[in-house]
Amino acid sequence: MSRPVARSLRDTGFFLGIAFFVILAAFPFYWMAITAFKQNSDLYDVTNIPFWFNEPPTLEHIKYLFEETLFARWLLNSLIIGVCVTAITLVTAVPAGYSLARMTSRKGEALGIMIFLTYLVPPTLLFLPLSRIIAELGLQNSMWSLVLVYPTFTIPFCSWLLLGFFKALPVEIEEAAIVDGCSLFGAFIKMAIPLSVPAILTVVIFTFTLTLQEFVYALTFVSSSDQKPITLGVSTDLIRGDVFFWGEIMAGALIAAIPVAIAYNLFLDRFIAGITGGAVK
Amino acid sequence: MAAVFTRDIIKKFGEVPAVNGISLTVPDGEFMVLLGPSGCGKTTFLRIICGLEQQTSGDLLIGGNLVNDIPPRARGVAMMFQSYGLYPHYTVRNNIAFPLRTQRVPREEIQKKVEWASQLLGIGHLLDRRPRQLSGGERQRVALARALVREPTALLLDEPLSNLDAKLRSSARQEIRQFQQRVGLTTIYVTHDQVEAMGMGDRIAVIDHGRVRQVGTPTEIYEDPADLFVATFVGAPPMNIITRNGGGYIGFRPENFLPKDMIEDGGATEFSFRVDRSEYLGSERIVYGVMAGFDSKQPITAKLPPAHVAEESIRPGEWHPFAVKNSALRHFDTNGNRSIRH
Amino acid sequence: MAVIAEPVAKPISRFHFILDRREVLETILVAPAILYVLLLVGLPLLLAVYYSLSAYTIYNPTWKFVGLANFEQILQNPTFLDTLRNTFIFTFGSQLLGLVLGKFGAFLLLQPFPGRKIVRALIILPFAVPVALATIAWQWMFDSLYSVINWTMIATGILTREEAPNWLGNPYLAMLCIVIINAWRFFPFAIVIFLAGITAVPQDVIDAATVDGAGFWRRNYQIILPMILPIMAIGLIFGIVFTFTDLSIVFLLTMGGPGGATSVLGFAGFQTGIVSGDVSHGAAISLFMLPVLLVVVIFMLRFIRRREI
User: Fold this and answer.
1) Does the distance separating the beta carbons of B71 and A176 come in below 8 Å?
2) Which of A136, C38, C211, C223 has the largest count of CB atoms under 10 Å?
3) Which domains, ranges and CATH numbers included, belong to chain C?
């Protein structure tokens, strides 16, 4: 067949492919969004066309969320947990990542890999003994149990990210500072940290998103509605009796999902670079 | 009193000795060059003097004081790194002021010293810029100012010119040398470039495999090499080395290996030389070939002066009588060390 | 002019510069992280092993050692073998599907076209949004009465209302659902991994292959694919580990049903250990994850090491 025809066939195929993937990926979210704003009468009518509004959109689900449920409280819980866990993670992972990066022998690499591997130990294995430990500490059914447990996966992951970053930071600058009169620790504080602000920012964002989306530990350790973080709350607490309040559930899911989605979009490249640091030369 | 004195410094990484017993004395105000190929241990040795590495054994004295267990900041040394090591997040002013701040020097004094150092290096107009806004030459001057401002006993430089392109290298070289002479600061300079070493050093220490092969002025190193390594490392093209029939080696430099009719007075040894290849470099001509009756590892080279450049008098493939003045011959024993003959 | 700086003259105690000792500082800086991990990951791991070898339950928290009895009991339970089988199907089915989708998606996204950034942002969504929230969206989409998928199929005449499947009520369909959801979750991750790997292949290698006469398919499968194998392996490690041990999707979508058809290891461990309070058997169930994980990780790490270019 002639060149232009072949080309336009290829182009059409290309765009069909792209469209397929976009619809596949995004449709559930479109569905989520539209459900959140549809009136109940519109929602629960099988004869209505589901893809668009048959009756005018409404904010009643969102109102209900904030007024009749503990949604706002869950948001607050997640915020508190996020801030605390991020603080703990920064204080432990930044020095650890730096130290591992600057270790001279293969020791640093080996330790780094070991720490990273703990990230792969599944929560669905650890949650059992951890639940006993939490009970012993008297933290059962409290959101503070999550503040204690979440760093177990944020610290390994962030240490690994920071290890990669600090390795790429030239040692010369710290050595110059040492010769100029800094102590080793001073060089860390005055040189390494100020120059690693982008990486630290990435760590903050990731830790926050990791805590926001966590489900297993939250499910295991928290049962009281007012102690639940946002993801757990929206997934489990919006069912009254046997009835699913889909409008509210979708609205809650939407609100809870947006910040995480935005953060991932901005930082996904860094994330991938972080975990594949070794294999991609 | 020597500014820097080392006694039998050894540094081992695992089982491998990177520095294998170096004893060196650097008097006050001298520009000492540590010259050697990559991996010979010269940078490790420099870092030991600086305090960034700890020697496995041996003593180090700076300004007369034993500093073996003392960290860099208390040794009275300043160091300039290959990429200058400027602090990217500080202005030039704060870069220069940093060593004084760490010593808790009072603010007015810091101000004065920064002024003085920046005037000395002509960078007063750059004080409020950041390193990334500066050219290579400007960065070098900032690094020097920062090194100078603490008035150290010794200034250590680790191949600072290797990142520059060839053109900048010679002007940067000059600047460093002039600066040092003006200020009179004891300087230890590490490089693998023998042209740099010969051009800059008061004395040169030639280092190979962690040992000092010879310490001397450029003239001594060039005219009186202590062994084969020094003889062939310094000078481009390198000294011609041929094996003697009775054991040992004889060496002579390409510029001393000339057509017989160019050597006037007697006292010369003749050789028959066949040219295989020639390179015309404008101001001279370098010819490569073999000598009748003698073995050597590399092709024999001769550096022909302009008299023979224009004419195609020495053609490839033909045997010519060449000669070397006896005074220009260097003799080496079977171990490669210099021996005195006749 | 040079004034000789004041070198230290007085004797210094060995402890004066202790924080300057590299080893000391290094240890202090790593210590908090290592301690945290040891206490809250290492210790629980050992505890889990111990529980599985004891008769510990919530109602009878005894430390009595029973050897491998728990494991035997679990293995004799037919539903457990189903659970094990389900877990494997779930994991490898969704990973395969995700990989295939990922490869094609990456291929499409390699070409620059207007709006590529937006498309990329949209395609990342399934991976970027928390599992639990995405799962409940799918739950709504698979709802027995109001499923939009069913509605579409009815409206386009493929099926009638009576034939419309009860997605979550049918054992085979329910399994299909969780595989789809997990593949849907991971394919954007696969796309990004592929993209990262392919763009890391140096252009000269590809050019050399073209000059050497390699056509499109040969270039892709004999040159590029082997070079991105290490990064694919890393992506697979993540995918397999997080799928094999997953609990959220099953918990929210099917609660292991209908009749245990979608029960997976993570979920079974949760049901037994937390909900029923039988800690010892729950721990034993969860421990079945370890061998598979270890094998996967070791195998992949070796593979990466050997293949490093």
Assistant:
1) no
2) C223
3) 20-52 (no CATH), 78-307 (1.10.3720.10)
Q: What is the mean pLDDT of each run of 10 residues along chain C (309 residues)?
A: 38 47 85 92 91 82 81 87 90 92 88 84 87 89 80 78 77 89 92 86 83 77 80 85 90 83 89 87 89 83 64
Q: Which two tokens stand for residue C259?
A: 């009749």
Assess if residue A170 is contained within a domain. yes
**Is A111 in the same domain as A218?**
yes
**Would you give the distance in Å from CA A205 to the centre of its chain?**
8
φ and ψ of C201, to 5 deg: -70, 125
In this prediction, what percent of chain A has a pLDDT beyond 90? 29
B and C: number of Cβ contacts within 8 A = 41
Which one of 3.40.50.300, 3.90.280.10, 3.40.50.720, 3.40.50.261 gives the CATH number of domain B4-229? 3.40.50.300
- Interface with C, mutate which of A49, A121, A211, A271 (most C CBs under 10 A): A121
Is the domain spanning B237-339 CATH 3.90.180.10? The answer is: no
Q: How close does chain B come to A19, measured CA to CA in Å?
A: 45
Q: Which residue has the tokens 């390994």?
A: A156
Q: Which of A105, A179, A182, A195 to mutate to test the interface with B (most CBs of B within 10 A)?
A: A179
Q: Report the run of H or E that residue B77 belongs to, with start and end.
A: strand B77-80
On whether the pTM is more than 0.90, the answer is: no
How distant is the alpha carbon of residue B203 from its chain centre? 9
Is A281 contained in some domain?
A: no
Q: Tell me the percentage of chain B whose pLDDT exceeds 90.
A: 48
Q: What angle do CA B261, B267, B270 make, to 5 degrees?
A: 55
pLDDT tens-digit readout, A47-85 = 777 777 777 888 888 888 888 888 889 999 999 999 999
Rounded Cα gap, residues C240 and C96, in angstroms: 10
Dihedrals phi, psi of C205, to nearest 5 degrees: -65, -45
In this prediction the ipTM stands at 0.84
Q: What range does the domain containing A256 cover?
A: 62-276
Compute how many other C-beta atoms are within 10 angstroms of the C-beta atom of residue B111. Answer: 14
- Tally of structural domains, chain A: 2
> Based on the domain organization, do A152 and A105 belong to the same domain?
yes
Q: Which tokens in the block code for residue A271?
A: 């994330």
- In chain C the first and final C-alpha atoms are separated, in Å, by 55
Per-residue pLDDT of B13-26, as tens digits, reads 888 899 999 999 99
Alpha-carbon distances of A277 from A94, A161, A167, A254, rounded to whole Å: 17, 9, 11, 33
